[in-house]
Design a protein that fits this description.
Layout (H helix, E strand, L loop, with lengths): L5 E5 L4 H13 L4 E6 L2 H8 L10 E5 L5 H7 L5 E4 L6 H6 L1 H22 L3 E6 L9 H15 L10 E6 L5
Parallel strand pairs: 1-2, 1-4, 2-3, 4-5, 5-6
Helix pairs in contact: 5-6
């Protein structure tokens, strides 16, 4: 599935994103991987470290999923999107609810809209165990995001686009 594909990883410099990019590089033959992240320092550190330094298939885009025009540019000619960008810290989400909603819900909506517009083939959204019977804002926003990604399939009935969600539980 990944061989010969262009893959966009939102939140590509986070712990999951970096691990995912490394697995893609080591186990598949993607044509290009776009690391999409708003963190300039993490992008620099990733580019400078093994196994990423000198890797010709990697492209780094500074951008935020909340920025629709930038996301449109980044997703041009993309085959697969792995959506891992989110505000994930429970205390941060509780203290900054508007920012959490803008990123986890509005940003997810942007990813869906742009993927539909560009006819991306596969979109996998990363979720969390906290979205199951949520007791905090983070879990509630991820539950809303999950439902949006699943519902997006209703808009793909005449295309090859497939939206899916995977739950990534806490890791000890």
């Amino acid at each position: 599935m990944f061989d010969g594909s262009t893959v966009l990883v939102t939140g590509g410099t986070g712990s999951f994103g970096k691990s995912c990019v490394e697995k893609l590089l080591n186990n598949f033959k993607p044509t290009k991987i776009i690391v999409y992240s708003r963190d300039e320092l993490k992008q620099y550190e990733m580019q400078s470290s093994e196994p990423f330094s000198g890797e010709k298939r990697l492209r780094y885009f500074i951008g935020d999923i909340r920025d629709l025009p930038r996301l449109v540019m980044a997703m041009a000619d993309v085959d697969i999107v792995i959506h891992a960008a989110a505000l994930k810290q429970v205390p941060t989400a509780e203290y900054n609810p508007f920012e959490c909603i803008k990123t986890n819900i509005n940003g997810a909506m942007n990813v869906i809209e742009v993927a539909l517009e560009h006819k991306v083939k596969k979109i996998v959204a990363l979720s969390t165990d906290k979205a199951c019977n949520p007791i905090n804002l983070y879990g509630a926003t991820k539950l809303a995001s999950d439902k949006m990604f699943v519902a997006a399939n209703l808009h793909t009935l005449n295309s090859d686009t497939c939206f899916s969600v995977v739950r990534y539980g806490n890791v000890m």
